[in-house]
Amino acid sequence: MRSSAAGALLAPLVALVLAVALALVLLPAVVPLPAGRARAASTVADMIWDELAECESGGDWRAATGNGYFGGLQIWPPTWEEAGGLRFADRPDRASRRQQTTVAEEILHLQGWEAWSACAREIGMIGGGPDRD
Question: For residues 68 and 76, is the Cβ–Cβ distance under 8 A?
Fold first, then answer.
């Protein structure tokens, strides 16, 4: 009789554990994550940023060539400011590579790959890339 009493006590506990587990599985589908977490899950691989920087600035993360764009990804200062770059440095070329790519993730969220249209096309991030004969 002891085993049936223990089973009677465990049944509600097992049901509760299963309900919690199911809720944890289904919760992300019902409740959207905060914007910061959602973006973190969709970050661009470092090699993509390096390819883009190679095209934009020859891979020079400190580029300041006088063309009005700065850093490895050749970011225009007003765009840098709009995307929150001032928390790192006054211009992209004065920020670290990691800081530049962090801001670039926000630019990507705001403008898409068109922010770097020619080079993004060249590296295949948007359609109409170079002919590969």
Answer: yes
